[in-house]
Design goal:
By secondary structure, the chain is an alpha/beta fold. It contains 11 helices and 12 strands. It binds 3-isopropylmalic acid and manganese (II) ion (MN).
Length: 353
């Protein structure tokens, strides 16, 4: 009997439902070609539900979602909901409670896609950022006092323990080994200023690298320099590993170098649990219902999901189908693709071998 993967689909807000529909279409096409099947169940978490019910995420959500093989997320963010409520209450809460401690963000320039980097092509822009996803500044440790006065104090701490750092580093080293390109892992930190947190990262990086991954070359860059080299010499990078906040920032920079949010995918991964895969852009509400949003980021997220589930050949087949479609599009930007959302999904689905 062929394997069936049960996928929870969280279409979310704005254009989220349009892009997840195309990603699911492509998943079914890949399943048909690669001898497995995909069964989906939709969950209506997002801004509309919150405005209707006053509840961001029902109490049962985490346990219900844990029963699936993976989660596909469209987009979270609603113009009528104050920023932060849905992001924290849905996206960050699921990342934390499902212990998705890796945020895997490939920075890959597909053929025919315009990059703002002068004289750089697909052979130069092809690396992966491993962003730690459950710690650091995102833990919300801190507080505020004397709010609203001239003496107001606000603290938000960058918190890491050795276990969190180690498990992230081990994943990144193993990923560089499996990727087998330059066999190089670059730690992106700030050891010259954050002398507690990034000292912990740096020591663990070299200790684990030397003892367990001697075949992987180790580089170190401060985060500010990382940004500079991502623009000037992206071809230097293979796999970059970093903390949560730096990873958030540098992956938006990486995304724009690969053609923008229309094509940038991310995976929130718990290697021993349930992962959640998403386009890293937002809900783009002004394009809702116009069949004009780029579904490729969601489609690439679905490919990453299959790769993580062990369906590597199917994941590669989707990637090569995407590679054939990008040169036929005018732009990766919503409203300027020269084709519709559903056209892109159809073409990729038909191209999956
Ligand atoms: C991302 C987003 C989120 C983050 C926001 C929406 C909370 O920017 O996935 O990169 O900061 O992690
Ligand atoms: Mn971000």
């Amino acid at each position: 009997m062929s394997k069936t993967y049960r996928i929870a689909v969280l279409p979310g807000d704005g254009t989220g439902p349009e892009v997840t529909a195309e990603a699911v279409k492509v998943l079914h096409a890949a399943a048909g070609k690669h001898g497995f099947s995909v069964e989906t169940a939709d969950f209506d978490f997002g801004g509309d539900r919150y405005l209707r019910t006053g509840e961001v995420l029902p109490a049962s959500a985490v346990s219900e979602l844990s029963a699936f093989d993976a989660i596909l997320l469209g987009a979270i963010g609603h113009p009528d909901v104050k920023p932060g409520i849905l992001e924290k209450g849905i996206l960050l809460r699921l990342r934390f409670e499902l212990d998705q401690y890796i945020n895997l963000r490939p920075v890959k320039l597909y053929p025919g896609v315009e990059t703002p980097l002068k004289d750089k092509g697909p052979e130069d822009i092809d690396y992966v950022v491993v962003r730690e996803n459950t710690g650091g500044l995102y833990t919300g440790v801190g507080g505020v006092s004397m709010k609203g006065t001239a003496h107001e104090v606000a603290v938000q701490s960058m918190v890491y323990n050795r276990m969190q750092v180690e498990r992230c580093l081990r994943y990144a080293f193993a990923y560089a080994r499996k990727r087998d390109r330059k066999r190089t892992l670059a730690l992106c930190g700030k050891t010259n200023v954050l002398t507690h947190v990034y000292d912990l990262w740096e020591r663990a990086f070299h200790e684990i690298g030397e003892a367990e991954f001697p075949d992987i070359r180790r580089d170190y860059y401060h985060v500010d320099a990382t940004c500079m080299w991502m623009v000037k010499n992206p071809e230097w990078f293979d796999v970059i590993v970093t903390g949560n906040m730096f990873g958030d920032i540098i992956t938006d920079l990486g995304a724009i170098t690969q053609g923008g949010m229309g094509i940038a995918a991310g995976g929130n991964i718990n290697p021993d649990g349930v992962g959640m895969f998403e386009p890293i852009g937002g809900s783009a509400p002004k394009y809702t219902g116009k069949n004009a949003i780029n579904p490729l980021a969601a489609i690439c997220a679905a490919a990453m999901m299959l790769d993580t589930l062990g369906e590597e050949a199917a994941a590669r087949a989707i990637e090569s189908a995407v590679t054939a479609v990008t040169p036929t599009m005018k732009s990766m930007a919503a409203g300027r693709m020269g084709v519709t959302t559903t056209d892109v999904g159809d073409k990729v689905a038909q191209g999956v071998a």
